[in-house]
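Data deposition worksheet. Section B asks for the primary sequence of the deposited chain exactly as it was used as input, without tags or linkers unless they were present during the calculation. Section C holds the resulting structure in token form. Section D is free text for depositor observations; keep each observation to a single sentence. Incomplete worksheets are returned to the depositor.
Section A, Depositor: J.P.
Section B:
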Amino acid sequence: MYLNNIATSILFLFTVGVFISCGGDNDPVTDDDQGTVEMPFTGDIDWLSTIGGSGEDEGHDIIATPDGGYLIVGTTNSTDGAISDKTTTDNDIWVIKADSNGSLVWSKTYGSSQNDKGYGIVATNDGNYVVSGYVSSGDGDVSTFEGFHDYWIFKMSPTGDIIWEKSFGFSGSDQAKGLIATNDGGYLVSGFFDVTASGGQGNDVQSGANSQGQNDTRASGNNLHGVGDYWAIKLDADGNKEWRNFFGGTNDDRSFDLVQTPDNGYIIVGASESADFDVIDNHGGHDFWIVKVNAAGEKIWTQSFGGEEIDNGYALTETLDGNYLFVGDTRSTDGDITNPLGNADSWAVKFSPTGSLIWQKTNGGSLFESARGVTNMNNGTYLVTGSSRSIDGDITINNGLNDAWVYLLDETGAILFEKTVGGSGLDFGISAVKSLDNAIVMAGNTESNDGDITSNNGIKDLLLVKIK
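Section C:
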């Protein structure tokens, strides 16, 4: 997608670098030539729901549904409250349907008799949905299982009934995280893959030399990567495998998100602590790491961003001008990080289709901030979802310990809006969407029962909040 004249005009109405407080009424952004422009959000909480039982219940991904409601995928070990189809306290993949007011419509759990977790959900071309996560046993809803953790992907109806389910894995820990619907009607899923436990299997793509001159030597079990690699699996519309490929080095490399590119290839992102094999430019510790592949899953290029400490990338979106925005957190104070703010900062990196750095911005205060999701608002602005502990810098309100946090960036990385939600406990924002009436609906989890959080069902609840 590229900026058209209308989007460009809208974008220029924002004053770069103006900070907008969201604790109450906001001053409007002004432009000397264009006059006064109202901000898209007031920062008021329209409604807030805490959903769960007496155990630990989390929301990991959210999508809007055609009826104005929402589907949220996450994890639960509760057996009461909103969870009515579960009798054991192991973790299960959990999907809930909420209406436009945040009220629970239905709740269903999926998986095996052991610990399972859900991470991604996408709509399908035929009006159904596909969910990604991982399972730890081959019983219950799971028909096949290889060992420890397997990728588990299932298609469900709008009322939560399983249409098909597929498992992928070997004897180690193989955990699906990111999921997208592809333009051919299929899906691409990525996550974490234990290459050592697979004996070098899990790669159907023989790339040879790629555009960076690197040779692919992974076909042989004598050239194994380490305990964790990115693992991308392309599926057709029925969940059948079309190709698999893994990427990484000898240390811990984990993928969390991905997008399809205009050339029908894919960009896969996450965090890497390797400095060998596919990782050719490690900065130290964990880095934001990007892998570009073509439509057949062949590696085209890789790129690292970061400093000497731990920099974890979690979420990716294409920008309106045809580039990409990659968000996560950084503890570094050097390398690509030019303005460290606190112990850990929310970090946004904008890069070109060839992996060149366009800009990078830290956001937060003097304590700990992280970004876990990014949403293209389709108007030249980008909503970042995460958490904050600070009460200075970019953050005007802290409710106690950790708050869920959303903030809006323009194409240059300037903050246009920010809002914290929480109480005196630990509260996290993970993913957000734009509602039909152009508000923010954020999903995450909360351990609070005060402040913005008016009720709590147990140890940890799924948090669902609409911000106008």
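Section D:
The chain has two helices and 30 strands.
The longest helix spans residues 5-12.
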